[in-house]
Amino acid sequence: MSLPLRRPTRDPARAVPARALPRTLRGRLRSAVRRAAVLGLAAACLGLTAPPASVGAQGLGDRLFPTLGNTGYDVTSYDVSLDYSGHNDRPMNVTTEITAEATTELDHLNLDFARGTVRSVTIGGLPARHEQNGEDLVVTPAFHVSRGQEVKIAVQHTTDPRGTADGGWIRTADGLAMANQADAAHRVFPCNDHPSDKALFTFRITAPQQLTAVANGLPQGTATRAARRTWTYRTAHPMATELAQVSIGKTSVLLHHGPHGLPIRDVVPTADRAALARWLGRTPDHVAWMERKVGPYPFEAYGVLIANATTGFELETQTLSLFEKPLFGANQLPAWYVESVMVHELAHQWFGDSVSPRRWSDVWLNEAHATWYEALYAQERGDKRASLETRMHRAYQQSNGWRAEGGPPAAPKAPSPGQKISIFRPVVYDGSALVLYALRQKIGPAAFERLEREWVARHRDGVADTADFVQLASEVAGAPLTDFFQDWLYGDRTPPMPGHPDWRSAGAVTTPVPKGTAEAPAPKSTGGTAAHKGAAGTPVPKAAAPTPGPNGAAGTPAPQGTARVPAS
Predict the structure, then answer these.
(1) Tens of pLDDT along 2-46?
(2) Which residues are in the Peptidase M1 membrane alanine aminopeptidase domain (predicted)?
């Protein structure tokens, strides 16, 4: 899948700045707080002297998700301990410990949290007052917190996996998995639920011994007591909350290695491990292929988590991408197509996970690149149906309609009421990959490849926005590209395509094909049907309009004509 995100640093309707000075991650976050004060947002976001009863939801002011995230502190780490009974239809007891650094004077602070009962909160080991206000947990410590002071917060609470139509837990046939894009991590644990505030994570999952628990990062050991086992996992790199993953079930963990000895651990239903082995064996080659395109893999491990569930999407959870099992059982789909879906989620480890968007309007940077490498892989490994130029030409023909429906790539329209993941419209996928195609046409393949490598190297483990990309592209090209990007990223209509003066884009809105414009290739003996991940192919029937997948996460279209929202 692919989902919501950033702190506003600029009105997206305005022109792209000609330059954006490089900043460190923490410097970016703190400067964003200062900018918020200058813009008059401090009264709403930094009013930190009133008692909790008078304080409502804060939010970072993200244009698409205004109440997500909180100001006044930077989280440095989370330690989440879950106690799973073995029943995925019952609430779980959880202890979430948060370490943060205050970026201003604090008499109280807000955490994003919903769909759970808070039993107690301590700050610095002392009891703290707490009150729920909408989807904010407002906490008042027993002492004043000074700017620069480390704050340790411990919350005893529950999390409920039932009825999660808007994200968070996925109930599988034998347990649970997690899908937090775009704004659902706080429906599992209290957090600063915005991709601009990345942190290190530790997960401690206690479950019955017959089950296996897996989470982001690398295993740190297990402990057994009576009939229960505790599994501990820790990330080596900072992670956005929406990329957290916890899987519990009757699964097997298959260990092998990728390029340079990279640990690869795949998590699959035990009963299906033999049937899925052919797909799991492809991951090392996928990693090597991506490294040839953009440089070293950015994390400590990678793997594929195949959930025993029908979700309607795949999701780039950090170091362990989530896939639904039906994708790998669609025998009518060619192998190169399924593999291109796998590469899409892998590409996100560089674009979206290691380099995270500063605000949700920058999500095009995630999806454009993941879609680009998905399509490039399909062209290199597929047949004539997988032509990149054909796919981009088709996208160009539909681009004006997508912009009318969902807004330009870098200024997407707000989500539809009650459908927060509806920001993941076709313009975010193939409509944004089209921008990269136009850029490559303009600056040439060699400069484009240098840009891609430099982008992920310069912003590794950080956050970045559209202005950063414009600045770097201009730097690599040796010429200002501000006007080019202004038209391509913010224009209501699609500009002329460099090198293709004959390409035309229709003006009317057409029924969007799930996954950008992407369609799965139909079997040669049948008509076209929609499938996962938007690889080039035969158009889906116009009646098969995409609908949001369950659990609040954007997803890929299902095989065999069941249209779905795009995969992340």
Answers:
(1) 333 222 233 333 333 333 323 333 333 333 333 333 333 333 333
(2) 333-488
Cα–Cα distance measured from residue 82 to residue 152, given in angstroms and rounded to the nearest whole number: 19
Domain of 91, in residue numbers:
58-248
Tell me how far CA of residue 479 lies from CA of 2, 442, 484, in angstroms. Answer: 32, 11, 11
For the domain that residue 341 is a member of, what is the CATH number? 1.10.390.10
Q: Is position 411 within any domain?
A: yes
367, 430: one domain: yes
C-alpha–C-alpha distance, residues 153 and 125, integer Å: 8
State the residue for tokens 């009317």.
508
User: Distance between CA atoms of 30 and 9, rounded to whole angstroms?
Assistant: 12
Distance CA 428, CA 420 (A): 14
Please provide residue 154's backbone torsions phi and psi, each rounded to the nearest 5 degrees: -125, 125
Query: Are 258 and 188 contained in the same domain?
Result: no
pTM for the model: 0.83
Whether the per-residue pLDDT at 265 is higher than 60: the answer is yes
Alpha-carbon span 195 to 5, nearest angstrom: 5
Phi-psi sector, 168: left (phi>0), alpha (psi -120 to 50), beta? left
* Pair 140, 52: CB distance under 8 Å: yes
557: nearest Cα among 543, 544, 428: 544
Q: Are residues 401 and 284 in the same domain?
A: no
Last residue of a domain, one of 481, 507, 533: 507
Q: β-strands 321-324, 200-208: how paired?
A: unpaired
Cβ–Cβ contacts within 10 Å for residue 154, how many?
17
Residue 134 amino acid letter? G
Asked if the structure places residue 374 within a domain, the reply is: yes
**Positions of E strands within 50-175:** 73-83, 92-102, 109-112, 118-123, 126-127, 129-133, 136-140, 150-159, 168-171
> How many domains does the structure of the chain reveal?
3
Among residues 241, 351, 366, which one has the least CA distance to residue 297? 351
Contact 424/432 with Cβ under 8 angstroms?
A: no
**Interval 37-77: pLDDT, tens:** 333 333 333 333 334 344 556 789 999 999 999 999 999 99
Residues 196 and 154 in one domain: yes
Domain boundary among 248, 268, 299: 248
- Which ranges in 8-166 belong to alpha helices (H)? 25-38, 42-45
Is the distance from CB of 303 to CB of 216 less than 8 angstroms? no
Asked if residue 4 is part of any domain, the answer here is no
- Quick check: 317 and 234 in contact, CB under 8 A? no
**Are 384 and 422 contained in the same domain?**
yes
| Mean pLDDT within 492-496 | 97
**Digit-coded pLDDT (tens) for 98-156:** 999 999 999 999 999 999 999 999 999 999 999 999 999 999 999 999 999 999 999 99
* Higher pLDDT, residue 264 or 563: 264
Same domain, 375 and 472: yes
Classify the C-alpha dihedral 186-461-179-257 as positive or negative: negative
- Whether 345 maps to a domain, the answer reads yes
pLDDT given for residue 540 in this prediction: 27
> Residue with structure tokens 């008059």?
40
Q: What is the CATH number of the domain that holds 129?
A: 2.60.40.1730
